[in-house]
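Help: why these numbers?

___
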Amino acid sequence: MDLFKKNNFWWSIAYLLLTVVYLSKDSYSGYVLPSYFIAFPVFFASFILLSNKGLKEYLIILALIFSGAGDLSGVAGSLILQMCFFAVAHILYIITFLKKARFSIVGIVISILIIGFVLFYIIFITIKVPGNELYAPIAYSIVISVMCVSSFLYNWQYRTLFRTGAVLFIISDGMIAWRMYMDSFPYMSLAIMASYYLAQYFFVNGALRRDNQSSKTLITV
């Protein structure tokens, strides 16, 4: 096992342990953690990226930091501030992906489908919510849709990891919206946070693997 694979293995294990510790708290295990621990896995991931000597993209680190700030804002009960922090994080991801984008007919079709689906979904579950309360969730839905679209336009190494992370973000936020405006289901909070942490992991792992490779252009399939 070379040095990169060894380091990648150990940071992945550490990240996994942090997420498991948080996800298994309270009702799942009986022990209690400080509420701010929710941001530890993401801040840890940003530190791992920052310590990577081959790092080529600092925007991902900033996105992780803003995501962690969003986590802490949610704990503090500020939904709007949380949404703003996450929106900034997604905008940073968008910039990162579009810097290596390749536009095509297939990409445009996928873009329309993703944005259309997300907007239809948020309108469907908020159909009975007063119009003035819809501006923020719809604006945020557009941002995360564009982030997901940009990951499918991304044309560089390990794009599958980034696309998987983007889709997991859509799933996580989709469940949050469902819980807010529709109903909940057993272990929904666990599913939301697990998909969120996995999304961040795929982004960080993709960045680490990409920056470890020699620079060569990959053609999007």
About this structure: Confidence is low (pLDDT under 50) at residues 214-221. The helical segments are 3-23, 40-50, 59-75, 79-98, 105-125, 135-153, 159-181, 188-212.
